[in-house]
Every structure is written in structure tokens, then in C-alpha cells.
Specification:
The protein has helices at about 30, 35-40, 50-65, 85-90, 140-145, 160-175, 190-205, 215-220, and strands at about 1-5, 10-15, 20-25, 65-75, 100, 105, 125-130, 150-160, 175-185, 210. The chain is α/β, with parallel strands linked by helices and about 220 residues long. The strands form three sheets. A six-stranded parallel β-sheet has the order 7-4-3-8-9-10, sandwiched between helices. Strands 1-2 form a two-stranded antiparallel ribbon. Strands 5-6 form a two-stranded antiparallel ribbon. Helix 6 (about 160-175) links the parallel strand 8 and strand 9.
Length: about 220
Amino acid sequence: MATIAAAQPFAFEFDPAATALVVIDMQRDFLEPGGFGETLGNDVSLLAPTVPATARLLAAARAAGLMVVHTRESHRPDLSDCPPAKRQRGKCALRIGDAGPMGRILVRGEPGNDIVPALAPLAGEVVIDKPGKGAFYATDLMDRLTAAGITHLIFAGVTTEVCVQTTMREANDRGFDGLLVEECTGSYFPEFKQATLEMIRAQGAIVGWTAGLAAVVAALAGDDE
């Protein structure tokens, strides 16, 4: 067993053999200029620090032999899995499915839908294309985790208050213990990130735990803090 003693609200214990790293939606459409995030009026530079931090976490997880899962919010080219209410929501210059600088917005197979190169999945790592905010909705993620004997999840990704928090809540309802790595998640609204971290770990880890990157990397290396 490994322990992250500095986790909040109390120590997080996990068996690396039964733990997966889940990296949520680190896609060009959300992180790069010209993508969907920017068309919504957001400053994508606020998410930039999450990339090197997540690259460090990925390296540590891979070295420790964790199962690695990447997710992408994406839709079929015919948008048959995108409800009209989702496509029409928001005041943005481009909507899901529209042609943008990096191809059609949030459509599978388009350049903007790719995970940023610095965090590209390796051969054998799981990639989940999800049509909703949560990674368990309308995907085979639960089946994959169950088949691998996973009981604990370490989370990174964007945005903290939307797809990351939704997935953590879904995981909590399905019996997983989850921890969010603080430097490896980001929001276009820093105050939303802080509020989400506090909500996750409130009331004795009602949704899950949070911890700093250094403490997580140390635990993955076998150097419990």
C-alpha cells in the first residue's frame, strides 16, 4: 500500500496495482487558442500550467505501473450523440460540430479533438471518447476499470468544476475512492477551481480527496510522506 499523508481532508491510502490515473479532456479544443474553450470567451492561457504538471504526473504513474486512462469530450460526426440542448447552450462564436481553426468543434477525428501532444497517450493506454461531461456516461469506462480490478482513481484534467468534478462524483457513486491532484487540474475561472477543491474534500471527503503534485509523485515512487 502507498499513502499520501498530506492529502486533504486526511491521508489517502491506495494500492498502486488497483489504482488508475484518469486524465480528463486535456484536448486542444479546450487548451489551445482557436478551440472551443476560446470560442466560449475564455482565456485558455489559464489552463496552460496544467500541462507540464500533468506530464510530470503521467510520467510518475507510468513508472509506477498504474493503469492510465485518457478521456476526450467528443461527438460522432453526425452529432447523433449530441442533444440539441447541449449544442445550443451558451453564447459562443462556434458551436459543437461547427468548423473552426482546428476542424469541427468537439468532433471525433478532428485535430482539435486530439489530446495535446505533451500528454499524448502511449500504446496500450485507454482512451475514452465521452459524449457527456462525466466519463462514465454512455462509455465502457466502468467495465474497463472493473476488469482491471481498479478500486482507486487519481484524477487530473480540465475543467475542474465541470468534467473533472462530474466524473469524480460519478466514480464516488460507483464505489471508487478518488483523489484530485491540485496542480494538474484547471479552470477558466480560478475561483471555481478553488471552490470545487473545497467541495470535493468537504465533510470528510464526501466526494474524494485532493493533494499536491509533489506528494502524489513521492507516493507513486514509494516515498510516502
